[in-house]
Amino acid sequence: AQRVTQPEKLLSVFKGAPVELKCNYSYSGSPELFWYVQYSRQRLQLLLRHISRESIKGFTADLNKGETSFHLKKPFAQEEDSAMYYCALSGLRSGGSNYKLTFGKGTLLTVNP
Amino acid sequence: DTGVSQDPRHKITKRGQNVTFRCDPISEHNRLYWYRQTLGQGPEFLTYFQNEAQLEKSRLLSDRFSAERPKGSFSTLEIQRTEQGDSAMYLCASSYTSGGVYEQYFGPGTRLTVT
């Protein structure tokens, strides 16, 4: 079974402070991990995916298979980063594929001025 | 093309009534997904289509739920004999894939309230 855990429902930081949103996953096969973001009154959108190893809006995330984690980090938070962040997993079974996304419950990040 | 669209955006219905939602994916996308999101939870997978074929259904999708994607274009999700527990945001997403995992683009959602 696929499972994604985001232990923090709420995270509040001050502008300019580092931020880390935690994500742990459980999957027996080869996972692909994503971070999705939802800004106020906007639709869910992809922020980054582990396979591309990009830095988007200053955010990075490294897949740690040993710790089954995919934490999202940004060294200096900005007020416009305030949003709901969801970690998601798509599992790739051997001999086939499974494209559905399994989401965590989300972390609401608030960046205070 | 302005992205994935869903109609209606809000639906209030009485318990026992049937409701139907529509999703129009991005035009060249061959995969279409339905998710359900309740308060305080992340989206939960319901079902997905590759072109017109429905390839997987979640156990969350009871017999009262049915989804179609005729001709591999728009999709409809119907809920028969609605219950209060069906109240949720219903999200549609689409992606293009020819192998591998591609980005899913989400619609704005349809918020269902069952009274």
Written description of the protein model:
- The complex is a heterodimer of chains A (113) and B (115).
- Chain A has 113 residues and is mostly beta strands.
- Helix content of chain A is 0%, strand content 45%.
- Chain A contains no helices and 11 strands.
- Chain A starts with a strand and ends with a strand.
- With 115 residues, chain B is mainly beta.
- In chain B, a hairpin with a 6-residue loop joins strand 4 and strand 5 (44-50).
- The chains are: A mainly beta (113), B mainly beta (115).
- The A-B interface holds A 4, 9, 32, 43-46, 49, 51, 86, 88, 90, 92, 97-106 and B 3-4, 31, 33, 35, 40-45, 48, 56, 58, 91, 95, 97, 101, 103-109.
Summary, kept brief:
Chain A is built from no helices and eleven strands. With 113 residues, chain A is an all-beta fold. In chain A, the strands form three sheets. In chain A, strands 2, 5, 6, 9, 10 and 11 form a six-stranded mixed β-sheet that branches. In chain A, strands 3-8-7 form a three-stranded antiparallel β-sheet, with no helix packed on it.
Comma- or semicolon-separated keywords:
heterodimer; A: mainly beta; 11 strands; globular; B: 115 residues; mainly beta; 0% helix; 49% strand
Instruction: State the end-to-end distance of chain A.
Output: 41 Å
Largest sheet geometry of chain A: 6 strands, mixed
Q: What share of the residues of chain A lie within helices?
A: under 10%
The multimeric state of the shown protein is heterodimer
Uncertain segments of chain B:
none
Which whole number gives the mean pLDDT of chain A?
90
Most extensive interface, chain pair and sizes: A-B, 23 and 25 residues
Number of strands of chain A: 11
